[in-house]
Structures are given as structure tokens and as C-alpha cells.
Amino acid sequence: MNKVKREGTDVIGTFIDALDLPAAIESITVWAESHQSRTVCLCNVHSSVTARSDQKLAHALSLSDMVLPDGAPVAWVMRKSGYSMQRRIAGPDLMIRLCEDLQKKDISIFLFGSSQNTLDKLESNLHLLFPGLQLAGSLSPKYGDWSNEEEQKYIDTINASGAGIIFIGLGCPKQEIWMVKNRERINGVMLGVGAAFDFHAGTVKRAPEIYQQFGLEWLHRLLSEPRRLWKRYLLTNTLFIIWTGKQLLQRSR
Predict the structure, then answer these.
(1) Which range among 95-109, 120-134, 230-244 shows the weakest confidence by mean pLDDT?
(2) Using CB atoms within 10 A of its CB, is residue 186 exposed (0-12), middle (13-18) or buried (19+)?
(3) For residue 129, how many C-alpha atoms fall within 13 Å in the half-sphere facing its CB?
(4) CA torsion angle for 10, 13, 19, 21 (degrees, to 10)?
(5) Among 178, 189, 214, 174, which residue's Cα sits nearest to residue 71?
(6) Is 4 part of any domain?
(7) Does residue 231 fall inside a structural domain?
(8) How many distinct structural domains can be found in the chain?
């Protein structure tokens, strides 16, 4: 299924599709209507840098059917690489726009990941926002590693729901690796949307609009949890700047 030529470019070793939000939604919807087993990943600075040293994540991203620029810096590199109109496609925005569009279509969704408390709040909020949305079910998997039997039960539950789109909220890199591992076993389009579950459930506050507009959601998260995140952002942001700088210099020669 990955043999179709895709328009996009390499960003420090990861191929990112050059798509706008409507085009991405259209492709996902077409796949979901016929219950094609597909994977859609969202790639930001952290995941693109992590993929440089995590072979499993790099492999998962390379096999995904669609990889979208979740981070503003990733979209900026794409614009500098010839895709001048490319904009960021954030996971939370993709999820909410898809849910809005699906109200008018015979396609149901499934929520897989996060805690039961978050899922309960997320389901309630989605019902309020989109009364016509078909929510086929949700499942909060056990924390930690799963046995083959547990994983198969999760897959059977998802497939039995009949959902055409499965939103996966397991966090990076677990969700990307799990989706690609189980492609062909799940009868629908899997989207790894990470923190979107928490944002739309209201359990975690998303950055204000001004931060989003300037690609500074990472800064809002850093200011919210400085002790936990300062090393991560210092390292990943620095490496991203160095590697993208080298990449763009090489392309300009």
C-alpha cells in the first residue's frame, strides 16, 4: 500500500508528506470508508529527533501510509525545502476536524489509549461537540507491556466495533510502533494523536492560541512542567537545529 508515489520531503531522516489539512482528511476518509488498514503518524521535533536514534520508531515512520508535520519547525523545514505553502498539521486539530466532518458520513470512530477517566471525559465532550458523530467504542489498555493474549483482545475489541477510524493515544514512540506492527490486523485507519486525548478531554490544558500560531506550544509545555521537560527540550531542540541546519546547507550547494 506504500507503493503509491507520495509528495513530500525528508526532514532529518524522516519522510514527511506535503499535504494541507483538507487533503489529509480527504485521504483518511477515503481509506476509512472501505475499512483499509492504514497508519497515519504526526511528526514533531521530538519524534523526528528520537527517530535518529530509535530504529523501531524510524522503521515505523518509514512504513506509515501518511506522516504529517505536527511541529511548526518541521513544517518550516519543508517550506525551506521547496514546499512553500506547507503548514503545520497538529494532531489535536486533525482529530477535531475529522470528528466534525464525520458527522455527515457513515464512518464511526474508536478511541484507544490513555486512562479510563480521560476517555470518559473525552467521549462526553465529543458527544456535546458533535451530536452526529458515531462513537463505536473506547478502550483504556493496561499500563506497561502487554502479553500477546492481551494485545489480541484489544485488537478483537477494536475490530468488533466496526470503526473505520481508530484514534490512538499511547504517546510517542509507543503508538507509532504499535500501529505499524498491527497494520493488516486492524480493519481501519489508525491515527496516532498522542496528547490530543488529554487536550480534548480537558484533563490537560493546551497552549493558548498565540503560542500555537507562532509554533511555541513546546514552550508552553516547558513553562508548565520545567523540571520534567527542560532537559528534553534543550537536547531535542538543539539537535534539531543542528541537523536541519546541516541538511539545508547541503541542499543549497
Answers:
(1) 230-244
(2) buried
(3) 17
(4) -150
(5) 214
(6) no
(7) no
(8) 1
Distance separating alpha carbons of residues 25 and 101, to the nearest angstrom: 9
Contact at 8 Å (CB) between 163 and 188?
Answer: yes
Q: How far is Cα 243 from Cα 99, in angstroms, rounded to an integer?
A: 36
The cell for 30 is: 477515503
Residue 7 has pLDDT above 70, yes or no: yes
Mean pLDDT to the nearest integer, 149-169: 98
252: in domain: no
Q: What are phi and psi of 131, to 5 degrees?
A: -55, -30
The amino acid sitting at 174 is: K
In this structure, is residue 217 part of a structural domain?
Answer: no
Angstrom distance (rounded) from CA 2 to CA 73: 26
Q: Is residue 229 over pLDDT 80? A: no
User: What range defines the domain where residue 18 resides?
Assistant: 9-201
